[in-house]
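Hi D.,

Good news: the full-assembly prediction came through. Inputs first.
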Amino acid sequence: MNLMMLLEMAAEGLGDRVAVGSLEGGLTYSELYDQAQAAAERFQAADGERVVLCDESSPAVPISLFGAAAAGMPYVPLNYRLPDEDLQALAQRSAPGVAITDDLGAVRLADAQGIETMTRREFLEDLHRDGVPSAVTERPADPEEIAVLLYTSGTTGAPKTAVLRHRHLVSYILGAVEFMGAAPDEATIVSVPPYHVAGVAAMLSSVYAGRRIVQLPSFDPDLWIDTVETEQVTHAMVVPTMLARIVEALDARGSEPMLGLRALSYGGGRMPLPVITRALELFPITSFVNAYGLTETSSTIAVLGPDDHRLAQYSEEPAEQRRLASTGRPLPGVELSIRDEAGEEVPVGETGEIFVRGEQVSGEYLEAASPLVDGWFPTRDGGFIDEAGYLFVQGRNDDVIIRGGENMSPGEIEDVLLTHPAVKEAAAIGVADEQWGEKVVAVIVLADEAAAPGAGVDESEIQELVRRRLRSSRVPAHVVVVDELPYNDTGKLLRRVLRSQHSHLGDPDG
Amino acid sequence: MAELKPGARFQSTVCTTQVIVVKGDGDAELTCGGAAMVATGTAEISGKPAPDAAEGTLLGKRYTNADATVELLATKGGEGSIAVSGTPLSVAEPKTLPASD
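Then the structure:
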């Protein structure tokens, strides 16, 4: 089954419902289908093998995603926020192909060999000029074909090209989304960028569910809040840094709780407990969903649902409260296994590496042989599963701090640091230590009040806080105050950068 | 006989129904509206569904047999109803997962 089939079904079943944009003037499912068909003709006529998108969110995103599928060409969204040199290198890797981009992107990609660029405006105008297309009727039906190529964010090295085939993405959608399951008035706000797997999944699942897509060109917390209200948005998906900034903006406005949003899903990184706790208060009747997934798994593989969130908020049972830090249980059709370094499954409750298996799991990169063994994909994320089957993700295995043979999750320390009123953002990293192998360094950004001249915070006060809440091994040897932490543009903390910035605090030969 | 393997697509010959196989194994007597279904795009529609097989097939619904060895997704709806070896398939329970993206 080809991805375009999902849109064809929506056009068949919900032709006149608005698929993308405002209720007035948005594209209906029929129109989106026609334009994707026209785009497919345009792509096939071009001298290339791939459809590259280097642009902010706009209707060109779903049109080119489905158009590429209908043309039988991989869709390759690029991170337009990368520096010129990195962007050009990725464009070069994507050649030969046709690229849709903004005016600036056309200039930046001009030197990429084998890439034919067209601006978004030209692309969209062409589709209208051609009118209703004669239709690319013979759509490639081979589910083994590559649907999407995504460059990994490369937080731990050079970006790799993750391969998602039609069968992976279709399995995900058929397994997770009910066709036309959305009520006619539902609308979802998409603020994740097109080159993030969640940006791809949002297009597919919204179309299949029949839920109107409202796009933010790029994320801004005030724009997000205003758009939710003006566009009658009922659903949203955000990454943790977005939710942190939305919460901050709502608090700054001192506005009433937001009641219109029915469902808020978050994922793509570890959510700090103080942020989700405050969000539950600011969105008192919203259904919260925590989704855990990876690029290599076609997005979501486990979800913590709305009831679990509210149970954790109001429960006095520690096991239930703790679930707020969990990513819930696997989707139907997805299996999880926690394994030790020897590859053996560990007992319930014990920490190891998270392995996942299922039809939506690809794990494939263009640059490497498949890492799948008997279908199991090693995520390189550490975590454990509790007695009730809830998954707790503790971050990248590469980020674990190992002090005196004891494995410590940075997130656990960061959650405690964030409870201090003077701390706005926090990161815990390990640096070399002669005696212990590694020691903990806390890197913090101060809250506005504490950053004022003459204010500030004592190192000893921070250390004492961690000592009181956690074991003494987790107490930071150093507390460093910085103006900002290094994040990539989807809010992933760049721990590799942070470790090299602060490596001088470690012992030279440790 | 139709070979039911995931991804295979079939059409009714007596109504507009089309399906794609989500789950299935091996040859089966697949009918819609009482007439054998054929590979999509290989036949014109003619005639009408038999009266005892005209409950209809709904776009986007998943149809399964009693022991859940067969699952078909309707990619186009129609007036005929689908059956395997003469036994009508039933609509699978809708998914109750929350939207996550």
